[in-house]
Amino acid sequence: STDPLTIETSVPFTPHLVDAPSRSVDTSPQELLTFFRDMAMMRRMEIAADSLYKAKLIRGFCHLYDGQEAVAIGMEAAITKKDSIITAYRDHCTYIGRGGTLLEMFSELMGRRDGCSKGKGGSMHFYKKENRFYGGHGIVGAQVPLGCGIAFAQKYNKEDTVTFAMYGDGAANQGQLFEALNISALWDLPVILVCENNHYGMGTAEWRAAKSPAYYKRGDYVPGLKVDGMDVLAVKQACRFAKEHVLKNGPMILEMDTYRYHGHSMSDPGSTYRTRDEISGVRQERDPIERVRKLILSHDLATEKELKDIEKELRKEVDDAIAKAKESPMPDPSDLFTNVYVKGLGTESFGADRKEVRTVLP
Amino acid sequence: HELLLFEALREGLEEEMDRDPSVCVMGEDVGHYGGSYKVTKGLADKYGDLRVLDTPIAENAFTGMGIGAAMTGLRPIVEGMNMGFLLLAFNQISNNCGMLHYTSGGQFKIPIVIRGPGGVGRQLGAEHSQRLESYFQSIPGIQMVACSTPYNAKGLMKAAIRSENPVILFEHVLLYNLKERIPDEEYICNLEEAEMVRPGEHVTILTYSRMRYHVMQAAKTLVNKGYDPEVIDIRSLKPFDLHTIGNSVKKTHRVLIVEECMRTGGIGASLTAAITENFNDYLDAPIVCLSSQDVPTPYAGTLEEWTVVQPAQIVTAVEQLCQ
């Protein structure tokens, strides 16, 4: 059936200086099936990245998003590609949510030429300019002032669009966040600070790093909303609400209560600072994909087998993309010097071989 | 028409704001107050609070916001009230401003200008007398220019604003009131070009910013003593104009560098390395580099004077170099 559905969020929103939106979220069978498919694909993709890392095809830093998929998906469902998103280093799924391709993603992860950043960025540096995805940033918290600046440009250009500036609970303690929020509030910028609270900044539990882990309240004079970040419909509702709010009133904070199944990065087994019971408990009780699967089944929107078939298809889609990415060539030595400057200025004045004098004068 | 250096900067800024609606200015007290060195005087009245933005004292955040705005195509000019304050924004300038074009595989350009006064002034104390070009020079992806006359101040300001690359424009606290007659018609300077100040045959003196005037003072004495020095204001601190510099070295075979930057890891040190690497065959004598002493700039006037290079030292250095 294609009749619209209304579904109650799992837990109520907790508001700060604002009236919470309704717990009843409008959706449709089509939307729920798309949510399932998109989140399952992200899950599959991150698991595949884990294997590629263990096979040493992906090196360096690699931060996986599995567990947090509902945030990326719910957010996209509430906004358009004219709105902007910027995030930190756990950026694979946000990039895919913005319309990035599996091929460009896996190519970038393996440092290939066909990567979204030509192999020069790596796991932490995914971008998609045409869909207003501003990265992909490696320094904890430093992307938030950038996001506020993007929102400033939106206001400057008199657009009716907003920016979602995402950060984790670890970054929530960075001073620059409060600086940028103050300026954004003074200038009434259309920016939403999205705190993806996965409860651990690397291995430091939130309460060991924040005197007040109520991140939705930490804007003081800025309104906030605490959201169940494992419930894709709640995320959608909150983001739609926030977009409307910030266009009229200036910034807002959304705290997404979420969880990462993997460790912080590939060198972290993720089990020294939390118990295995805690992880499996979240998986059983709050998993964002399972929640949608149950909704689909209980409303008879698809059969268990149909959902399994979708997952099988996705596995193939991911495997095909990886096979193709493996065929992408490594960057050429000449790529080393491109994109340092917009014109190739200066980079060659010492010469790659450090012998040749080639001053590039326009 | 004749104007002071700060007015030349202001004129360049105003012309570019007239020309391009995506140019905006942000910084501490740039708006209603008019800029602590009056570079943005009157602009807030003319362009309004959306294009001339007074920020809180939060360099890290507003520099980052300028960079974010630049990612979308705006052309913000971020003023550091004093260069020393920009250290609070160093992460944004290095990790984001300098690297984003590269890490995004060329997707994003950062057409921002970061500018402000630096250098040793009149007893301003350690923090407000810094030459941060030494800190910024190793950031890949950033261009750096230093202005020294009203003419090049205006021309470089306009070029920096039009550049698709992030540019740091270094001004000097003691040069804002220099007066000069500049053309009435529009002009811009090349960001990558050195300026031939005085052609000569005996020795190449490379300098920039305020030290240009100490060098020219010394040059007078040197000419009276029978020397014919070639003085070049390198202007582009990154990348160096090795074309102009190289041709001069080929002619004079001797190089003296005079800078206000720090002795250790400064512009002079990098320049020495670049010349040795590229033009060693043309040198008849080792390069001499006169820099500031490696000390926090002292408050006391006499101590401060001993910190930076004085004209008499330049004369002595040339005499020794040309023996």
UniProtKB/TrEMBL annotation, chain A:
Catalyzed reactions per annotation: N(6)-[(R)-lipoyl]-L-lysyl-[protein] + pyruvate + H(+) = N(6)-[(R)-S(8)-acetyldihydrolipoyl]-L-lysyl-[protein] + CO2
E.C. code: 1.2.4.1
Cofactors named for this entry: thiamine diphosphate
Keywords from the UniProt entry: Oxidoreductase, Pyruvate, Thiamine pyrophosphate
Organism phylogeny: Eukaryota, Viridiplantae, Streptophyta, Embryophyta, Tracheophyta
One BP term from GO: pyruvate decarboxylation to acetyl-CoA
One Pfam family cited in the UniProt record for this chain: E1_dh
Chain's role: The pyruvate dehydrogenase complex catalyzes the overall conversion of pyruvate to acetyl-CoA and CO(2). It contains multiple copies of three enzymatic components: pyruvate dehydrogenase (E1), dihydrolipoamide acetyltransferase (E2) and lipoamide dehydrogenase (E3).
PANTHER family: PYRUVATE DEHYDROGENASE E1 COMPONENT SUBUNIT ALPHA, PYRUVATE DEHYDROGENASE E1 COMPONENT, ALPHA SUBUNIT BACTERIAL AND ORGANELLAR
Gene3D superfamilies: 3.40.50.970
Name by which UniProt lists this protein: Pyruvate dehydrogenase E1 component subunit alpha
Subunit structure as annotated in this protein's UniProt entry: Tetramer of 2 alpha and 2 beta subunits.
Coiled coil: none
Species per Swiss-Prot/TrEMBL record: Turnera subulata
Domain Dehydrogenase E1 component per the UniProt entry, residue ranges: 37-333
Source domain of life: Eukaryota
GO MF terms held by the record: pyruvate dehydrogenase (acetyl-transferring) activity
